[in-house]
């Protein structure tokens, strides 16, 4: 008989037995047994929980299903898992649902981070002036204000993020290169993040910062207009 068919039969039988055990553990002695509808509900829920065991084994990276094809002793272990799952069916199903949803959320976040990293590397190698006019209008809207040292420092941070051989920078690294205090770098980074000129990514060694597409266009605009000399005076 096919191994998968054997597994399905064992899972269903284990789920049925576990459902009955779960029902009997809560049964009032005065109640009828076979005529009680809750028995069949318990069996159905038990089978459902038992069917989730292969998924559970997969989430813990267990190779038990494949190993059971050549080792019949592993089938007994699977039956044990199915009985435990079906006897505590409600808690097991709820626990598995939460576990799977959390893993899906983590995978989604990982995919988002990978996409962000790829975008950063692609933007570093690609020149795009499609939003220069939009940025120019934004800067002109602040034409009448007096520039202060923070403006120069903001540009200095953006240049460090652009010119470095590293795409992702730490606060300490930016502080050392710009010769500004880490507290000031933190404030500047927060401002640049609010302006969408800088973003952050969680790396193996902690949070790292990188310049965005908007940040590159903003820096390019300042480097090619009369605003750059104004900022340089405050260095």
From TrEMBL:
Designated name of the protein: YEATS-Like-Associating Three TM domain-containing protein
Transmembrane region(s): 6-27, 39-60, 75-93
UniProt entry tagged with the keyword Membrane: yes
Organism per entry: Paenibacillus alvei (Bacillus alvei)
Entry keyword Cytoplasm: no
Coiled-coil intervals: 97-124
Pfam families the record matches: YLATT (PF20303)
Key words, A-Z: Coiled coil, Membrane, Transmembrane, Transmembrane helix
Sequence ranges assigned to domain YEATS-Like-Associating Three TM in this UniProt record: 3-111
